[in-house]
Amino acid sequence: MSTIPPFPWTILRSQEEFDNRWLRLTTHDVLNVAGNPHLYSTIHIKRAATGVVAIDAAGRVALVGQHRFPLRIYSWEVPEGGAEPGEAPLEAIQRELKEEAGLTARHWQQILTLHLSNMLTDEVAYGFLAHGLTEGEAEPEESEVLALDRVPFQRALAMVDAGTITDAISVALLLRVDRMARTGDLPADLARAILAD
Fold this sequence. Notes:
Blueprint: E1 10-19, E2 23-31, E3 37-45, E4 48-55, E5 60-68, E6 73-77, E7 80-83, H1 89-101, E8 103-115, E9 124-135, E10 147-152, H2 153-162, H3 168-182, H4 188-195
Parallel strand pairs: 4-9
Antiparallel strand pairs: 1-2, 2-3, 4-7, 5-6, 5-10, 8-9
Helix pairs in contact: 2-3, 3-4
């Protein structure tokens, strides 16, 4: 891998434009890579994103369906949430899996770190794999109207291929787990369940 070049922009001035409990919008007067004046806007996301592929012994993955307000679409996704400032991502996603799907897990593994929309935001997502599941009652937040489903892992991958699952965290995590199953990076029984048609 080649040497990383130095940061190419010169920041002349930064101005906070908006701030609330979720995000901060800042504009930056910079000199761009060509040395010319340029205006760059960035969004700081105050919560880390989290997601989990939760797989049962039969190789079924938990999916959550919900309306996503910004896009005005219905979205099928792996259970996701946000870690509050200072909260460990694992603790946050364990809470979200219980709230959204009513599941707890004996085995947890962080399998991916993502930078989402990195041309505009500094949002970081932490992705996990969970197995050894125990079922309980879901406890969604009052603002959530969720549908829950358990689908064979290969069907979830087919939903990615068909464009039925478009959420970035879900797509990345499902593909990562599939690769782990195919390269021997998972317990053999779990890999067999995931790869079964």
